[in-house]
Queue: 4 jobs
Job 1
Amino acid sequence: DVKVTQSSRYLVKRTGEKVFLECVQDMDHENMFWYRQDPGLGLRLIYFSYDVKMKEKGDIPEGYSVSREKKERFSLILESASTNQTSMYLCASSQNRVGNTEAFFGQGTRLTVV
Amino acid sequence: AQKITQTQPGMFVQEKEAVTLDCTYDTSDPSYGLFWYKQPSSGEMIFLIYQGSYDQQNATEGRYSLNFQKARKSANLVISASQLGDSAMYFCAIDAGTASKLTFGTGTRLQVTL
């Protein structure tokens, strides 16, 4: 069974803390993504990576950074957490190919910043 | 840039009836893919169906079909014979441009009633 695994299902962090959200996929996918999901706003792309050590900004990168040192692992970093970063975070991966580029998602991390 | 518009924040349908969830899109890329995902209350994103922009026929997957009208830039999801387990959020998404990144709409919450 193909899998994208996020390290935590629920996290509570304090304002100003550095927060790491980890994501691992076992499908040898080239592409990995971090989305944030908020009610009424759908899923918004924070960052994506199409290769090891490569990263591209998505639509809402401010306040976030990412790291991809290995193909299977993509980390999202909140340098200094703020309350407006309280949200559901979803990691996804996909193959780099023409045609159906179905993305596979992790179970999500619900982050609360207090 | 790509954009997905889902104008129905919520929908109700009776069990065993068919329902159509609306999705319109905007892109300047000649080649693109359209996706529908289901998100139950448990939070996981489940891929339902894919339509390529050059596909001649509308995509079907079991009880799901995609009503693709390219000239109108619409990609509506039709669920036939609704079941209680179909109650969930449904997201339309488009993949165009680099690295297969998906742009999502704001979603439609479907409630199936007895």
Job 2
Amino acid sequence: GAVVSQHPSRVICKSGTSVKIECRSLDFQATTMFWYRQFPKQSLMLMATSNEGSKATYEQGVEKDKFLINHASLTLSTLTVTSAHPEDSSFYICSASTGTRVETQYFGPGTRLLVL
Amino acid sequence: AQTVTQSQPEMSVQEAETVTLSCTYDTSESDYYLFWYKQPPSRQMILVIRQEAYKQQNATENRFSVNFQKAAKSFSLKISDSQLGDAAMYFCAPPVGRKRFGAGTRLTVKP
């Protein structure tokens, strides 16, 4: 149990275009989903927290107009990178949980984004 | 702040031997959980083990066990009978909230 999928696994796009990444909890209802960014050989950096049916909470320094997050249902959250630029190239990971504080997070397999 | 510190950037172990990865944390909360995650080359984060802070007994999952020292705020991961498939980055997760994972420890397993 506790499987989280993420799609696409990798995407290459041109500078200026938008890219949508989907995160789904397949066998449980995730009241909360988290989006992370991971640079090479570094730890995870939390970008935002999303709760089903409400606006996402962004971490300091993360542009909410740049990284649009939607959590439309208890099993789906999406991250849209708008007007992507080469510096947005990174590995993006989502996780799903039944809570925001102490509950176990289950991670998706990640999406590698390359912006040309 | 809910922070964790992993002081070992890299560790190496011989196959079939035992290795311990260290993690210290900081929290003012009384109710929390502690987690170790593994990130193999595929980059999929995999839950290794979970410890509930109110439990004095150390958690165990097959070859993986923890040494939880609540007063010292220490949460180390012991891997027994190391296998080649254990080679990965290991991250200690923050006790409360989701913000600051540890920097990670890269484990190499030598055949």
Job 3
Amino acid sequence: GAVVSQHPSWVICKSGTSVKIECRSLDFQATTMFWYRQFPKQSLMLMATSNEGSKATYEQGVEKDKFLINHASLTLSTLTVTSAHPEDSSFYICSARVGHGYTFGSGTRLTVV
Amino acid sequence: AQSVAQPEDQVNVAEGNPLTVKCTYSVSGNPYLFWYVQYPNRGLQFLLKYITGDNLVKGSYGFEAEFNKSQTSFHLKKPSALVSDSALYFCAASNQAGTALIFGKGTTLSVSS
């Protein structure tokens, strides 16, 4: 089946640094990638939708300059958290639509100290 | 605006008893409906989906769900709960336009032995 590989699984970084999260579609072409953020024991909140070769569409309230999304190829989408702060600590998950369904990455636990 | 509601934060059930996790939706057009399960610090595992066809959908691990258009509901059920079913369950929906999934807030299922 369609698999999205997400890396890293977890990362700890210092305040002020940037972190890049990668999602690769391993056996299909992901023209669209969705990025979600999840706080502990809460729902998945859609952050942005990225389409290959074009600018991402961000949801209201999401800072596009802080959460940089790049979708330069049909198999790779990246989320970069710039100048990270402790409040950015969260679980980030990517997802791609495949046929009538969706496939999800395994998630990235980001901790900013 | 599209939305998914899971009215229960937590459902408690004894092992061997039937379980129901409730979900209602508000989606324009014909809905695509999904159930996912999440274990701590893990990504989402697909359980089942309704796209079209029979209202009763059977999925993974013995779970099933019934699509009820008049009540705009898609409740998740299992005839006999297992302790290992204890996890966080999400209902999600999208329309046919290929948009991102909208998630409910999640329901924690606790199965006691």
Job 4
Amino acid sequence: DVKVTQSSRYLVKRTGEKVFLECVQDMDHENMFWYRQDPGLGLRLIYFSYDVKMKEKGDIPEGYSVSREKKERFSLILESASTNQTSMYLCASSFRAGQYFGPGTRLTVT
Amino acid sequence: GESVGLHLPTLSVQEGDNSIINCAYSNSASDYFIWYKQESGKGPQFIIDIRSNMDKRQGQRVTVLLNKTVKHLSLQIAATQPGDSAVYFCAENGGGTSYGKLTFGQGTILTVHP
């Protein structure tokens, strides 16, 4: 079975803090994705990566950056957290076709 | 832009009934579709997929039907159980888009009453 893990299930941070969300997959997938999910807005793509050290902006990259130093790990960075970044963050990985998701990180910025 | 959508935002059924969840897609170039199940507070779970060269695919208690003529996708759940209560949403690949990117529908809330 594909396994995608995320470093935290719940996270509370203060405005202005730098936040790191980690995602690890164990299936040697080429592609990895970061989404945020908000009520009424569905899944929105923040960034994705198709190879180590490669990244592409998604639909809502502002306020975020990513890092992919190893194939199995894809990190999402909030340089200076703001309250409007309170959300559920979902990581996914894929090899050509269907995406497999992690359990999500519920981030609250106060 | 093209998008994936759902006809019904909510669906309530009795335990044991069959459920049908619908999805309309507008990108005729899409050649790969997936159904996901998302329980409250959890990440989406891959249920079943189908390629455009098929019109039906069956899994355990689930069947996906694809009608390319009218650009419609449906998920049928047989003998629905309370544990099936979740949000279900479809996704499509937009036809050859690179890197496995998907477009997701908004979701249908399925509630199963005991």
